Amino acid sequence: MYADVVKDLVPSPASWLEDVCSSGRQLLADHALCERKASSMALTFVAHYPDKHDLVHGMIALAREELQHFHECYLWMHKLDIPIPKDEKDDYVQYFLKHIRRDPQNYLLDRMLMAGLIEQRGTERFLIIADAFRNGLFEDFKDDRDTALELGQFYQDLADAEARHGSLFHRLALKYYPEDEVNERYEQMWQFEHKAMLQAPHCGRLH
């Protein structure tokens, strides 16, 4: 399942994992914001394209699931006494956005492909994070093995969801655009994702 989702991605560098493992608490806080933003993003599709039934239907379901993930992150944060941080711009997403075509014909395709690639990257990183928790690599959870194992399962479950989300955006792109156009633009967007991933400072963040 995961191999098909992440096969196109350049692997995340080891330096990212080293940064993230320095603070699982910081990761949880940043991850929570990502889930909330993902829910808002899905509803933005609904607001901008109300005439596209399949897109609206899929995005409403996605928004609900992403909001549920935000709630699950929040429950972990509450349990561990981690405050919700202030919103900050995501350098990874901001770099990616620079390559989105703004004309009406191409904007929707680029946004769907971008969203799908971000979900693919999330799948890859959640799998890495799940293993890191299970293997006791997070500095602030080395003395709490039970919690680390629970968090490992939490991120494993989230990887399953991210994989589905990535596939959803690709299916929707094919619904509204010719397959050859989708595939050609996907190859270009894949290159942009790679550069965005490598250029974004780690700082213990999910992206």
Textual characterization of the structure:
The protein is mostly helical. It has one domain: Ferritin, core subunit, four-helix bundle (Ferritin, Up-down Bundle). Helix content is 75%, strand content 0%. It contains eight helices and no strands. It has helices at 2-6, 14-21, 24-48, 53-79, 91-97, 104-134, 145-176, 179-199. The protein is globular. It starts with a helix and ends in an 8-residue tail after the last helix. The mean pLDDT is 94.
Can you give me a brief rundown of this structure?
The chain has helices at residues 2-6, 14-21, 24-48, 53-79, 91-97, 104-134, 145-176, 179-199. It is mainly α and 207 residues long. The model has no long low-confidence stretch (mean pLDDT 94).
CATH superfamily: Ferritin, core subunit, four-helix bundle
The value of Rg in angstroms is 17 Å
Number of strands: 0
CATH hierarchy class name: Mainly Alpha
Q: Summarize the main sheet.
A: none
Amino-to-carboxy terminus distance? 22 Å
Residue fraction in strands:
under 5%
Shape: globular
CATH architecture: Up-down Bundle
Q: Summarize the amount of helix as a percent range.
A: over 70%
Spans of at least 5 consecutive residues whose pLDDT stays below 50 are: none
Count of distinct structural domains: 1
Element order: H for helix, E for strand: HHHHHHHH
Helix/sheet category: mainly alpha
Number of helices: 8
Query: What is the mean predicted local confidence, pLDDT?
Result: 94
CATH topology: Ferritin
